[in-house]
Amino acid sequence: MFFDSWTGLARVPMVGTLAYVALVLFIRVSGKRTLTKLNAFDLVVTVALGSTLSTVLLNNSVALAEGLLAMALLIVLQFAITWTSVRFPKVQGLVKSEPTHLLHGGRFLDDALRRERVTRSEILSVLRSNGHGDAATVAAVVLETDGSMSVLAELAEAPRIATVDVGAVADVAAASHRTD
Questions:
Q1: Number of domains, the chain
Q2: Long-range CB contacts (within 8 A, 24+) of 44-52
Q3: Three-state SS at 130
Q4: Would the pTM count as exceeding 0.90?
Q5: Are both 66 and 127 inside the same structural domain?
Q6: CA 85 – CA 94 distance, rounded (Å)
Q7: Most buried among 66, 108, 131, 167, using CB within 10 Å?
Q8: Same domain, 22 and 51
Q9: What residues make up the domain containing 65?
Q10: What is the C-alpha end-to-end distance of the chain, expressed in Å?
Q11: Coil, strand, or helix at residue 112?
């Protein structure tokens, strides 16, 4: 339970160092995008790489070469998907979700909250953690494609350019806000 063998102990630093160096090289060659968390797909790949590295380090039945091949495969697949999604909008639509306004012009967008399974209290928590005490003074809260939430500046300071990709929802929300 506490000790199996000296061979096992010697394997961890040797295989760990080699696997770590290889992973760093793979990431360097594949580019910065490999470890971004711009959407849920990117997060899954990052977690899978960490899990694969962990498995190579601690599981004697997984050879270093197998682990390196698994990491390379994940990186190549992630590269292929992102490369394709940049060039073909239909692929992008399959891989990446769209950002969603949850609060606009100080008003909660209840349909969007239900669709995204987010509560008003969660939005208020995000506002507090971003230094906003009153939802009525906030221009928008956007659920980003990676699952994080962005709080846009107070109404008087809100830049319109930041919501270009969620414009349709923003325009509808703004129109309903003006008619109230």
A1: 2
A2: 45/74, 45/75, 45/77, 45/78, 48/74, 49/23, 49/74, 49/75
A3: coil
A4: no
A5: no
A6: 9
A7: 108
A8: yes
A9: 6-95
A10: 68
A11: helix
